[in-house]
Specification:
Elements (H helix, E strand, L loop, with lengths): L2 H14 L5 H10 L6 H11 L1 E5 L5 E5 L3 H15 E7 L2 E6 L4 H8 L5 E6 L3 E6 L2 H10 L6
Antiparallel strand pairs: 1-2, 3-4, 4-6, 5-6
């Protein structure tokens, strides 16, 4: 089967259930008709940008790294608790946090597409974008954290 089909199936699997190991993912693929090795699964995980995150009980499972909605369950709960305000000024988004959480919040937004720079101190994150439209879209996207 084609790589794109296999990748699509992997995304389906990690969306539908918590896949904890490469062996578990390989077994799911084999059952679904894809002949794979551990090395193939490892490459697929890297190519798809999958990462492991922990659930409430500490068990780790695969998810998409760039998908804030997927990570959002746990991450948005944490950010919702520490973010006090999100302000848009021209090409910059300024995020005010509870004292001591600025740098932690920065790490959640560091890889945002179109981000030209991101700095943080104890309670503030400054993110500069390529242009005002991109900044406004990001501001709107993370607005759910304060609602």
């Amino acid at each position: 089967m084609r790589k794109t089909d296999r990748h699509s199936k992997i995304i389906d699997f990690i969306t539908q259930k918590r896949i904890e190991t490469q062996d578990e993912l390989a077994a799911e693929l084999i059952v679904s008709g894809h002949s794979v090795t551990q090395a193939t699964v490892s490459r697929d995980i890297k190519e798809l940008g999958l990462v492991k995150i922990s659930d409430e009980g500490g068990r780790q499972y695969y998810t998409k790294a760039k998908d804030l909605k997927t990570l959002g369950c746990r991450l948005s709960e944490i950010l919702r608790d520490v973010i006090l305000s999100v302000t848009l000024i021209d090409k910059m988004v300024i995020i005010k946090t509870v004292d001591g959480f600025g740098r932690a919040a920065k790490s959640a937004f560091f890889d945002v597409a179109e981000c030209m720079g991101c700095v943080a101190d104890n309670d503030t994150v400054f993110i500069v974008f390529k242009d005002g439209e991109v900044a406004a879209a990001f501001h709107k996207k993370i607005g759910f954290l304060r609602s």
